[in-house]
């Protein structure tokens, strides 16, 4: 599958299956696709940067996307920076380390 097709399918999956990102003022962007290995890097930002459930959203994307799209072998989810980033990333970074969120599976 070409990088363009993989990007289109990834974007479609995220738009249809994780609409909370955009509904809550966040955004996602496909930052990198390695069509040979099937590795995809997705950045989330905007309101996601300071959101308390961002770590759970990131974890869900990381684990569910390869299950849904067989061409994807690995997903890296990172926080987007730049002028659209919100201002409270340290709280969510701390939350990513908390055991309570290790196995949490959000309802999307």
From TrEMBL:
Compositional bias annotation for Acidic residues: 94-108
InterPro entries, A to Z: FSCA_dom_sf (IPR034904), NIF_FeS_clus_asmbl_NifU_C (IPR001075)
Q: Which residues form the NIF system FeS cluster assembly NifU C-terminal domain?
A: 19-75
GO annotation terms (biological process): iron-sulfur cluster assembly
Pfam families named among the record's database cross-references: NifU (PF01106)
Region annotation (Disordered) maps to 86-108
Give the signal peptide as a residue range, or say none if absent: none
GO MF, one term, reads: iron ion binding
This protein is called Nitrogen fixation protein NifU
């Amino acid at each position: 599958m070409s990088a363009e097709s993989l990007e289109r399918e990834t974007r479609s999956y995220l738009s249809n299956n994780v609409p909370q990102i955009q509904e809550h003022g966040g955004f996602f962007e496909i930052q990198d696709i390695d069509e040979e290995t099937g590795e995809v890097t997705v950045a989330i930002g905007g309101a996601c940067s300071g959101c308390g459930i961002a770590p759970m959203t990131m974890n869900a994307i990381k684990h569910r996307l390869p299950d849904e799209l067989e061409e994807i072998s690995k997903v890296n989810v990172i926080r987007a920076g730049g002028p659209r980033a919100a201002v409270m990333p340290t709280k969510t970074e701390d939350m990513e380390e908390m055991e309570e969120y290790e196995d949490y599976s959000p309802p999307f």
